[in-house]
Structures are given as C-alpha cells and as structure tokens.
Amino acid sequence: MTKKQRALEIIERLKKEYPDADCSLEYDQAWKLLVSVRLAAQCTDARVNVVVEKLYEKFPDVDALASATPEAIEAIVKPCGLGKSKARDINACMKIIRDEYNGQVPDDFDALLKLPGVGRKSANLIMGDVFGKPAIVTDTHCIRLVNRFGLVDGIKEPKKVEMALWKIIPPEEGNDFCHRLVLHGRDVCTARTKPYCDRCCLADVCKKVGV
Predict the structure, then answer these.
(1) In total, how many domains does the chain have?
(2) Are 90 and 77 in contact (CB under 8 A)?
(3) Sorting pLDDT into bands at 50, 70 and 90, what band is 192?
(4) Is residue 115 domain-shared with residue 177, that is, in the same domain?
C-alpha cells in the first residue's frame, strides 16, 4: 500500500468514525476565528471559547479591538497564557484589517501570513473553515498522528509535514481530514497515554511507528 492509498483509506474511515468534523473554536465571523486561533496557542480550545465571550462583551467588533490598548486586551485574555504577546498581536492584526481591508479578513493565504501572529497553521485554518478553500492544518495532533500512521516519515516540522501531506491528500479533503485527526487524537490516538489501538478504526492500516 502506497502512502497515497493509505491516506485515502484513512480519510474514508475517519469520515465514518467522525462524520461531523468542525473546528472546536467557536466563532460566527472570520475575524473572531483569527482572534481565537491566536489565543489557542498553548491553550485549550475550551478555555479560549470561554475567554472570548468576555473579550467580545467589552470589544464587540474589529474597530473596538483595533482601538483598544494591548493592556486592556491582555487583562481579559491573560487566562489563555502568553497574554502580553497575544494581546499585542490581536490589537495589531485588527488595526491592519480595519485600515487595509475595510474590516474584512482577506481570503488570500499570503495576505493572511502577513498579519501579526498568523502563521501557516492559522492561515490554513482560516482558508479552510471560513473560505472553504483547500487547507491542511498541521497542529500537534496532525503531526503526531500522520507520523504514527506512516503518512510521513519522522517529520516534525509543521511546514514540512504540510508539504508532504499536500502530495498525498486530495485538496478538497485536507481541511476536514485535519479536524478529524484532532478528534481521533483526543479520543483514541492520544498523546499523554498509550494509544488505544484496540479500539482504533485504523489499526490494520496504521504503521504504528511509535511516534
């Protein structure tokens, strides 16, 4: 079985196992996902979802966050960790969206990468979830699982993993595939305990390379 064949089989099985694959960060506007994904660095999505409610009570739109001081934002987002840098990035990012994009998040990958605090993972998430474009989000679950599955060979650097997956994952499947990896990584193919291979839907096609 080639890596591409294994990838296609894994995609189909995960579809059956996790039919509803969505981002666990809650948002109803593109700029809110930008804020949440920045706060999610080294923080759980569940905590981010709680913190942003308080943030939007005080700063309900792009203009409000752009006009706020980083210190005022930090006071609210501090529970997410790295409050100072996250608040600074959010403030700077919203200023650019307000001043250069008329308050709208750009639907261009390279433009997203130029926003403060936005890396490839965040940009891919925005492109896939908000704009429905091909995307591969290489978060920690994705990197761990695709190495275990044998879809990549001992690659840990996010960009290199992303580039390797683009070669074997159909573009239209990438975004949902990565969401399903998060669900599978939390429930079955865990990081902090031994993987539950006995109840894994992929056991017979997984290389289980011990990563």
Answers:
(1) 2
(2) yes
(3) confident
(4) no
Residue numbers annotated as active site? 121, 139
Q: Same structural domain for residues 74 and 97?
A: yes
| Residue indicated by tokens 């990197």 | 143
What is the residue type of 83?
Answer: G
Say whether both 146 and 97 belong to one domain.
Answer: no
Give the separation between CA 29 and CA 26, rounded to whole angstroms: 10
**Domain membership of residue 92 as a residue range:** 30-130
- Whole-angstrom Cα distance, residue 34 to residue 28? 11
Residue 135 belongs to what H/E stretch? none
Q: Within 13 Å and on the Cβ side, how many CA atoms surround 73?
A: 29
Sequential DSSP letters for 25-74: S--SSHHHHHHHHHHTTTS-HHHHHHHHHHHHHH--SHHHHHHS-HHHHH
For 66, other C-beta atoms within 10 Å of its C-beta total: 19
Last residue of a domain, one of 130, 146, 172: 130
The length of the chain is 211
Residue 210 pLDDT > 70, yes or no? no
Domain boundary among 97, 115, 130: 130
- The C-alpha R_g of the chain, in whole angstroms, comes to 18
Neighbours of 49 (CB within 10 A): 16
Which pTM was predicted? Answer: 0.92
